[in-house]
Amino acid sequence: MKIDKMPTNLKATEMSDWMQNMAAPPLLSYLEVGSWKFEQKNMVKTPTFDKNGVKKGAWSEDEDDKLRAYIQRYGHWNWRLLPKFAGLSRSGKSCRLRWVNYLRPDIKHGNFTKEEEDLIVELHKKLGNRWSEMAAYLPGRSDNEIKNRWHTHLKKRAKKDDADALENEHIEPDQPNNPKQNPVHQNPDLEFQQDVERLILTESPLSSSSTNFSPTAESFWPEPFQSDNDSIISSSDHNLFSTSSDFVYPVIPSQDVIIGDEFLWSSMDSYLEYGDQFMR
DNA sequence: AATGCAGTCAACCGCCACGTA
DNA sequence: CTACGTGGCGGTTGACTGCAT
After folding, report:
1. Which residue is nearest nucleotide C7, judged by alpha carbon to C1' distance?
2. What is the per-residue pLDDT for A152?
3. Separation in Å: B20 C1' and A50 CA
4. pTM value?
5. pLDDT cut 90: percent of chain A above it
6. Which of A178, A189, A190, A266 would you label with A98, given CA atoms 20 to 30 Å apart?
7. What residues does the HTH myb-type domain cover (predicted)?
8. A143: Cβ under 7 Å from strand C?
9. Contacts of strand B, CB cut-off 7 Å?
10. Distance of CA A111 to the CA centre of its chain
11. What are the domain boundaries of chain A?
């Protein structure tokens, strides 16, 4: 729901309550007043526009829908041009980020499990701040999410674990994990691989997808956008451009499809020739 | 009730690697 | 070899929440 004005006789806190009540489910999912958007739970400041008219800041539901619908139908053949075709006033980078970190169908939302957290700690010991590599071991989690989790939660835990381990080493120097006594520890790579395998293959809910586990991004987590490309060939429309209520898109003849230069050039040419007259 | 502060997370920015002309 | 465009990565920021005072 959108309205132009809010009550003028309310204090800030009262206004917030008023908004929350107005937007409370099941009546409304959100409420926009001027430059503010109030959702069922959170209040998100509406994005600003830079001098080039590019929108920045939090994404609206409407923008999410447009981006999701466009990519699911046509894939992301060029991030820079995608926002134009999808009818979004965003930079390509912003679209990519939003898709990769939030809208991708295989993305997992919600809390990290204990197993996932253990894995992140282990991976960080081995890989350092290579978040994207770490993400390859955690299907459904984006590098950004892992990075945030590390900085906000796991960094402290890892520090504490290290301190505890150091202390235990002094107290019980004959533990099996003592590198001097356990031959596995003489090979850090082997040790790391075994640790990761153990973490993933135990009671972890991830275990079903890791039957053929191999600690490489390529084999463990299929190219995340593979399915996008598969899904692009869908239109039988013969018009060069088609419009839906929300976005404009080139209609790609099936032989032009998707992967490779042919798609790019035909759609690019179409866009350059006809695109502007369809843009809003 | 108001204020301060730490924690959380989505999003941005700058840089780099890679592919192509 | 160089220049340029693009995608991807990691660091950082800023808005918001929740808790303590």
Report:
1. A79
2. 87
3. 31
4. 0.60
5. 18
6. A266
7. 51-103, 104-158
8. yes
9. A 11, 13, 47, 50, 55-59, 93-94, 97-98, 101-102, 144-145, 147-149, 151-153, 261
10. 14
11. 1-46, 55-106+224-280, 114-220
Instruction: For residues A200 and A209, give the distance between their C-alpha atoms in angstroms, rounded to a whole number.
Output: 9
pLDDT of residue A131: 92
Nucleotide with the nearest C1' to A261 CA:
B20
Element (H, E) at A30: strand A30-33
pLDDT, residue A66, reads 92
User: Which of the two residues, A256 and A74, has the higher pLDDT score?
Assistant: A74
Where does the pLDDT of residue A92 fall: very low under 50, low under 70, confident under 90, or very high at 90 and above? very high
Q: Which nucleotides of B are covered by protein (CB under 7 A)?
A: 2, 7-14, 21
Provide the CATH number for the domain formed by A55-106+224-280 in this structure: 1.10.10.60
Provide the percentage of residues in chain A whose pLDDT is more than 70.
44
Task: From the CA of A251 to the C1' of B18: give the distance in Å.
Answer: 30
Q: What single string gives the DSSP state of each residue in A84-107?
A: HHHT--S-HHHHHHHIIIII-TT-
At residue A172 the predicted structure's pLDDT band, cuts being 50, 70 and 90, is low
Residues A122-146, mean pLDDT to the nearest whole number: 90
CA of A260 to C1' of C14 (A): 40
Strands A43-45 and A48-49: unpaired
Distances (CA, A) of A138 to A116, A125, A132, A214, A253: 7, 16, 10, 13, 37
Sorted by sequence, the CB contacts under 8 Å of residue A115 that are 6+ apart come out as A199, A200, A202, A203, A204, A205, A206
In whole angstroms, give the CA distance from residue A162 to residue A153.
Answer: 15
Kindly state the average pLDDT of the residues A35-52. Answer: 51
